[in-house]
Write the structure tokens for this entry.
Amino acid sequence: MSTHSPTLWTILSETSRIIRAHFRQFLALSLLFIFPVSILTFIYPLLLHPTSFLDLQIANPQLLIPLIYAFLVLFSSLCSTASLTYTTFHGFYGRPVKFLSSLKSILVSFLPLLATLLVVQLILGLLILVFVILMLLAYNGLLLFGFEMDYDSQYFLVFVILMSALLVGLLVYLQVEWSLSNAIVVVESTWGFAPLKRSSYLVKGMRRVVFSMIVLVGAVVGLFSMWYSSLLANAGRGMISWWFVAQMVIYAGLLTMVSVYSMAATTVLFVYCKMSHGELVFEIDEELGGEYARLPADDGMVSSVVYVVQQ
């Protein structure tokens, strides 16, 4: 099937359509799983360093609070990924999606998502370890060839920047290749290495769109991080007032919205990647028994066809 890659705007527009069509369900899921953790993001440093902020008395915060925070973030992330991906995928086809069904999807996908996350972290950890070893070998090799690179020299700084750039490039490449893995785990019920390999196959021909989405989300998160740091700095100076609380709530709300759109857009991108590989035709034909209408895509981004159930 000959196709043209959709644009980032196409993905975002389709994502917005699905969220509007199931707004109450997306709102309920985000308030249940994402918004509380966004608020907790503010409370966490206040509890971790109480003497710097509110003089709260908490026993052993250096150990207990980070563990609790990490658990809540992980639990929330897996639950939101499972439920929002499930809702977006079925919403893409215009199917009715019940709130209880979205919650049930968590029971099915939670452990596979966790297992896949552990596999990804293991691979990344090994890659970073190997990279550090190679970096040390390269550094010592340059010294053997007579290059003078003291730790405070410009040559050493250039060397570190180049090596860091290579590592960042590798990590970004893997993020692009594995960007669809969570959606694959939820929709196709696979886990471990399989969704990573599957994602790498599906993003072929769509890497530019995937990279654009990663850059967009990264830029937005970067701006939010600057805002977050500014608010924490004000809290550290004791500048906590009703305006600080209002900004905290606004920040949490906007961060929740970005998270919802990011997860939903990834699922939409997953569907378009399947379309670009000619897989949707067979899936929809099998599901509907051949009873579907064929409509040409009207935005010029896909020279394929869009299938919808005849009313």
